[in-house]
Amino acid sequence: MSDYLPQEVITNILLRLPSKSLVICTSVCKSWRSMIKDSSFIGAHLSRTINFNNHHGTHLLLLHRFSSISDHRSSVHGVKEEVYSLHYDNNAFDDCCEIAFQSPIADTEMYNECFRVVGVCNGLVCLADDLERYGYNFLIWNPSIRKLVTLPKPGLTFQTVGGYYAYHGFAFDAITNDYKVVRLVYYEYEWTEEETHNRTSVEVYSLAAGSWSSPRFVDPQCSLLGQRLSQAFVNGALHWDAYGLGSKLHYILAFDVGSELFREIMMPKSLDWDLFKPWHGDLSLDCLFQEMENPLLCS
Q1: CB 68 within 8 A of CB 79
Q2: Residue 130 CB: number of other CB atoms within 10 A?
Q3: Which of 58, 153, 160, 222 sits most deeply, having the most CB atoms within 10 A of its CB?
Q4: Pick from 52, 160, 147: nearest CA to 183
Q5: Spatial separation of the C-alpha atoms in residues 265 and 260, rounded to whole Å
Q6: What pLDDT sits at residue 40?
Q7: 168 Cβ contact list (under 8 Å, min separation 6)
Q8: Which of the residues in the chain have pLDDT under 50?
């Protein structure tokens, strides 16, 4: 076909193909593989897919459930298996397909009985092995084409900082076309030989670089609410519910994934909060699972 059609026509045809077909097309020839894996093509395909889904209402929803034997100690005690399924957002909600999830992590290397969904971004799913116990297995999963990336072990662990609380977020950096896992860790830090303080640090995993950044202190320093705090990714930033260390200031902590800087967003006055009358709530964002599989995960 490349002998008879101009390059721009071939590109426009490929941009209109579903991602499963694109994966097959990477095996046609070296030039097609190079084009499909190019970041500009990935961005164009992503943009077109999102616009098409928004216009025609063909979003997909990811459902995660597991079979378990519950008791009074834990709602996930005795987990037997995890089940994922994709549903089209139609009126009947009856168009679905179950997805086989084959974890690359051996059972003996798992810290918990099942994974937790950290977040979904452009069709990629971030999973964490930290549901009940400290765990350091993280995956970025493309369920539509059954591709997985296993993240290296982060730098802040029980072995390096002792007991801690960890909070995670998953986001897309539109500036660098990169996907990032953000990990906030709240732990006791040795300030001097005689004195310790609670501190919050951050480390960021870059899918493009394939590694975690060096941990650094969060600025402004804060503590986050809840052990597995919900987070929302909006306008290029991740958001968590937080309060200032040494104060009763309650606010939303925002992390810009492009600049990797933090900022504070004040709470509405109606949600004034203090340590003795805690406010119970979750940050949330209604979002739909787009049918977009990133060719970065198709190698």
Answers
A1: yes
A2: 20
A3: 222
A4: 160
A5: 16
A6: 82
A7: 118, 119, 126, 128, 130, 181, 182, 183, 184, 231
A8: 69-77, 79, 275-280, 285-296, 298-299
pLDDT value of position 59: 56
Give the pLDDT confidence score for residue 74 in this predicted structure: 42
| pLDDT score at 103 | 79
Cα separation of 130 and 111, whole Å?
Answer: 7
Distance CA 200, CA 251 (A): 15
Vertex 42 angle, CA 53 and 295, to 5°: 95
pLDDT value for 289: 36
What pLDDT score does 171 carry?
94
Tokens representing residue 68 in the block: 């378990």
- Give the per-residue pLDDT at 107: 80
CB 152 within 8 A of CB 213: no
Chain centroid to Cα 139, Å, comes to: 9
Q: How many CB atoms lie within 10 A of CB 147?
A: 18
Label each residue of the chain as H, E or C: CCCCCCHHHHHHHHHCCCHHHHHHHCCCCHHHHHHHCCHHHHHHHHHHHHHHHHHHCCCEEEEEEEECCCCCCCCCCCCCEEEEEEEECCCCCCCEEEECCCCCCCHHHCCCCCCEEEEEECCEEEEECCCCCCCCCEEEEECCCCEEEECCCCCCCHHHHCCEEEEEEEEEECCCCEEEEEEEEEEEEECCCCCEEEEEEEEEEECCCCEECCCEECCCCEEECCCCCCCEEECCEEEEEEEECCCCCEEEEEEECCCCEEEEEECCHHHCCECCECCCCCCCCCCCECCCCCHHHCC
110/223 Cα distance (integer angstroms): 28
